Structures are given as structure tokens and as C-alpha cells.
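=== RUN LOG ===
request id: a7f3
mode: sequence -> structure
chains: 1
length: 218
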Amino acid sequence: MVEPAVWQEVDDYWNGFLLDDDPALDAALAANVAAGLPPIGVSAAQGKLLHLLARSIGASRILEVGTLGGYSTIWLARALRPDGQLISCEIDPHHAEVAAANVARAGLASAVDIRVGPAIDTLASLEGPFDLAFIDADKASNTEYFQHALRMSRPGGMIIVDNVVRGGAVVDAAVTDANVMGVRRLAAALAEEKRVEATVVQTVGAKDYDGFVLAVVR
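=== RESULT ===
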């Protein structure tokens, strides 16, 4: 059995070939650590994947639920078409302040609008259409976030929900914490949702063992 440490080594190996040096992203990571933000953001490889998915559909308008320190925000905003916009929802004012500084340092302040407050309230106030939505906030509310994202998505748009495997806990009946239960509620909702085609991709790497939902709006 491959040890988890190898997952990080493999990420580092491929990143060495496929990712360029990026002072803005490096500075964002350093600023997040200095500000005491939890290390729960996407990895570099996952950020690049988000960027490529957004580019692949020519995204002009992106919705992000869960800004944290803006690392994924930068990856996504760089994929926007000219004059595009990314709206990001963040409940923690400190996180939002750090993210805004990181986004500005990356030269993306004019393209990114960080809305501070409970995401469920922010989402209820927004209108679409969005080309892509990335949901990476409290997992207990995944289903509600997904429903709002779907309401505002254009046909052919993408919705990505991160952290839906949770190290395999999603299939462990003994685990009943709010995050896992939120993922299970999302799974049940997706099974009944006829407006999307969806799959789950399990991942290993710098962020250990997890996975994400990828849904395309019919």
C-alpha cells in the first residue's frame, strides 16, 4: 500500500514540470500562514485544475463559496475572460481582509468582489447567470449552497463541490459529524436532481485523501 507521504511527493514531482514559479500565489500562501488562517485551502495542483476547468468553458462570471485567504480565488479569477467577474462569499472578516490583500497583490482586485457575511444570505441576494461555481465552505450547508448555485447557473455551466470524500468517512456509518452528514445530504440531493449530470472524483495528494463533485448543468 502506498504511504500518504508519497502523495505529496508525487504532487511535488508533477508540479515541478507543470507549474511555473508564481510570486503572487507564493505570497498569498505566506500571508495566510502569517495571518493564522487554517491550512485548508486547495493545493497548487487543485488550483490549477480549477483554473483549467474555468478556462475550458470560457467563464466570464464565477461564484465562489468560501474565500479563506483567496488562494483558489486567484487561480479562478485568472481564468476569467476579459472584463469577467468573480464573486466570493466569506463569513470571516479576518479571512476576507487577508484574501482581499492577496487578490490585490495578484493584480485582480478589479475582477474580484468578496462579500463578507453568511454565505447563505449572500447567495440569496445574488442573481445569475454564473458560468462556474466552486463550493468550498462549511460542509453542513453543502446542499443549500449547491441549490443556490444551480439556481444561478447557465445551461452548460459547472458546479464543483470540494471535500466530499473526507478521507473515506462519507461511507463510515459510525461517523455522524456535521461535515460528513452535510456531504451525505448533498449526495442524496444529487441523486434526485434532474437538472445536472454529476460525478465524483476521488483525489490524493498534498491535501491527503478527499475528492470533489463535478456537476454540469443540463
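=== NOTES ===
The radius of gyration is 17 Å.
The chain has a mean pLDDT of 97.
=== END ===
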